[in-house]
Fold:
Amino acid sequence: MCGIYGYIGNKPACKIILDGLQRLEYRGYDSWGIATLLKEKFHCERRVGYITKGHNTKLALPGNIGIGHVRWATHGTVSEKNAHPHFDCKYEIAIVHNGVIYNESLIRSKLAKSGHTFSSETDTELFAHLLEEKSEQNFIDIIYQSIQEIDAQYSFLILTKKEPDKIYAVRYKSPLKIGIGENGYHVSSDVVSLVGIVNEYVDLEDGDVAEISAEEYKIYNKNGKLVHRETNTVDIPVEMVRKKPPYFLKEVNEQKDIIKDIIDLCVRDFKIDLGIEMDKIKPFEGVILTGAGSSFFASMVGEYYLRRVSKLSHVETILATELEQKYTNNITNLTKNMLLIAITQSGETRDVLDAIEFMRSNGVKTLTLVNRSHAEASKMADLSIYIKAGPELSVIASKTFVAEVLILLLLSIALIPKREITEEIKNIISEIKKLPLFVEEVFKQERKIKQIVRKPQYLEGEELSFYPLSLGINIPVALEAGRKLEEGLYVHATGTTLGASSELKHGPLTMVSGNTLIFIIPNEPEHRRMLINMSEAKARGAKIIAVATTGNEAVKSLADDTIWIPECHELLTPILSIIPLQLLTYYLGEEIKKRNLGRPDLDRPRNLAKSVTVE
Structure:
């Protein structure tokens, strides 16, 4: 959440920073700002809204050094005064910040008593005033003293008139990278913004303070010692980040190639190779899966796979925010023979990183699934699997969810000892190899989905409500579908009582009259029970859209509209069922805009940001 970008070199900084911020805008788009420094004078512009709207891209501030910020508000309303950069009382120091200062109230009170005045409601501004209070000649010493006073997680970029030819970068529990360019140095929250700009970058570590000039950079660790940090290669293809919106629809369509690429890379005959040494996490007595948002729903599918395919008896899925709460007073249940599988597409989700840190501190082995090489989660874990979905620029997840589910299915097979690969497992692998063909069949339903959303019955009423429902392995798919509709359309959309259709009679049935229920009902063991649930909802005036296996006449007779997926193994149905619901979300959004019923934005939904890096 929030994105920061700085540049120092021999080129005008403003345009470079503006371009960098545009590539970071998925991390925050409430407001934005840039400050440059020339001849000991700050030049600053701060605005509310997207950078890409209006004439913002023509902004020109003088100077070859500057810092910028795209904001996702944590302290203070969305306003120009709360947009970054922020300054001290004397206008000697400029600062941008990604993170949160927990003791901001105490610091604000202390600074106010010392005579400081504030121009914003943010916690960030307070750090500029803390720096201002110090009188030491060495600005790095001032930084070290000031960070001792805050209880926070942060990445800061700082300019000071005392050192007008340097950027200071400070990091603790919030990613920050120095890009090494031909014409200067770029400092950013995310490597995505550096693609096509530099070929190499350095990751700062927790406690690091970097002093960056146009000619060189120096990094000091938490103890103030000059250190060397490893250089990484920017390995993301330029075309993956330079695509034009709408990102969400493009990324839904990219799933066809992503699924094929993962299978081609990882499946050899009847062997699964995920590019990791499985012996490093074996043996283990039980597995805990964790994640947040869509990655949590993927982990729920993973639990089914590990129980069904790997035949593990002790498997549980815990929301990342709840994991430490559950085990803090129950540490004896955590042993060195437990395995944590932590899923985070960004590799920097704060809740997931905290869960990994907690489990490792208690001796638990950790495996992460991430979509970024050199991700924070990868550095913390014993092993990591790179899901290779490519950058996901839409705030709303699509391809990363499907890639995570597919990798979890392959992992459940990889965990089986070679001698126990049965004919049933071979049959599952054979079905996985057919998955790209099945996915092509699903996308043939796109035209039908466009026709469904044009029907007025699904967009009637003052407040739209959708209830995705399923049973068994597809309950997490119902939850994920509800999250897509909720995020993308700003409508009430939720899988009631964990997405289980069997729970309708235990309360939610009161809500179905006139609303749309989406039943995910492939041919599987729970099929007959769901038909009964559909009939009960239909009898009470519900509108029903079904996602079902091709040719299922019983479902077709009950549903108002049916979207077909091909007949396949039950374990593949979560992947095949979510794709038409992603398409349904997108085209419902387009129809809502056409009818002036709202202004949903699937790429940049209101109040959200892509990487949740604060608690």
Notes: The first helix runs from residue 13 to 23. The mean pLDDT is 92. The first strand starts at residue 3 and ends at 9.
